[in-house]
Specification:
ribosomal protein; Nucleotidyltransferase, domain 5; 4-stranded mixed β-sheet; single chain; alpha+beta
């Protein structure tokens, strides 16, 4: 594994340990070069309460690797989380910088009604 990926995974592990200590429901984001994925995971880490990605049928038609697609994923995951009864989450950016697509997804999730 490259040093860049190892460092990102170390940052992600430290953040997840803190969220587990706080027993927070978390909004976990993964960013690949082509797609964005978001999951709302229960406080014990054992159950996915809601999820959305650019691979969903509702979002599949448009471009999938840009800021606009990330905004759509953020709104969709917020809508599904609220339907599951979740409004308060901790934002788990998986070690990625809070910039660009990750920031766009977070802002859209806030607009959709999630608090973090």
């Amino acid at each position: 594994m490259s040093d860049k990926k190892v460092i990102r995974l170390r940052r992600a592990r430290q953040a997840r340990l803190k969220m587990r200590e706080l027993e927070a429901v978390r909004l976990c984001v993964y960013r690949s070069s082509q797609h964005m994925y978001a999951q709302v995971i229960s406080a014990d880490g054992g159950k996915v309460l809601a999820s959305a990605s650019t691979l969903d049928a509702e979002l599949r038609g448009a471009a999938s690797g840009n800021v606009e697609a990330a905004k759509k994923v953020g709104l969709l995951v917020a809508e599904r989380a609220k339907a599951a009864g979740v409004t308060q989450v901790a934002f788990d950016r998986s070690g990625f910088k809070y910039h660009g697509r990750v920031k766009a997804l977070a802002d859209a999730a806030r607009e959709g009604g999630l608090e973090f």
